[in-house]
Amino acid sequence: MIKRSAAALLLSSTLMTGVALAQTDTTPAPATSSPAPSATMGAGAAGSAQFLTQQDQGQFRASKFVGLAIYGQDNQRIGDVNEILIDGSGNAKAVVIGVGGFLGIGEKNVAVPFAAVEWVNERPASTAAASGTAGTAGGTLGTGTGTTASRDASVTGSTAAAPARSGAETAAANGYPDHGKVRMSKADLQNAPAFKWYGETQSNRGTGTAPRQ
């Protein structure tokens, strides 16, 4: 009798343990939900295209650099900007200056690092002195002598002389500086090695053509 009771108790315990295990194994695991996209990620995707609405005073129009005069350390004009070289990241790397010749005849290109050129907003002393008389006449009364002061007065309808602009203000209004300056002389640039375009170097090897000008 005691053996039967013990066997029954053991069987009952075994069945209860099996049921408990079965219930544990069949309980579904909580669903793992992927995190919702953050607001920052969404804003980054939507706001990836950014636009500028105006030109700042310290920003210049790259196309206007071509043709700017380059002056040497003695304030004498030694050439003109023929091109600005930029890399794939948009950084200005070099200034190609046309030196020598007349009206482009006999001219050669010389390239200097962009950082070697000082971009100046004020007119050079030599040209400012040459035009000083006309500037004084127009700036005194603004009577239509073709100066900036008289032109501003005609636009505004005022007979008073327009306030003179500083070099920085004029450069900002035009979108480009007045000229560039290098710490070299014209002889230095004329004796410098000539600059060649990539297409010219390749055409010499018979593997390319010279660039279109």
Total of helices: 8
**SSE order in H/E notation?**
HHEEEEEHHHHEHH
Our estimate of the beta-strand percent is 15-25%
Give the CATH superfamily of the domain at 58-121 and 177-213: PRC-barrel domain
> What percent of residues adopt helix (DSSP H or I)?
25-40%
Low-pLDDT parts are 6-11, 37-45, 133-156
- Briefly note the CATH topology name of the domain at 58-121 and 177-213: SH3 type barrels
**Radius of gyration, whole Å:** 39 Å
Q: How would a textbook summarize the main sheet? A: 6 strands, mixed
CATH class wording of the domain at 58-121 and 177-213: Mainly Beta
Q: Can you offer a commentary on this structure?
A:
The protein has 213 residues and is an alpha+beta fold. The protein has helices spanning 2-26, 39-46, 125-130, 132-141, 148-156, 167-174, 186-190, 198-204; strands at residues 69-71, 77-86, 92-99, 108-113, 118-120, 179-181. Among the domains are: 58-121 and 177-213, PRC-barrel domain (SH3 type barrels, Roll); 124-165, no CATH class. Residues 127-187 are annotated as: Disordered. Residues 135-145 have a biased composition (Gly residues). It comes from Enterovirga aerilata.
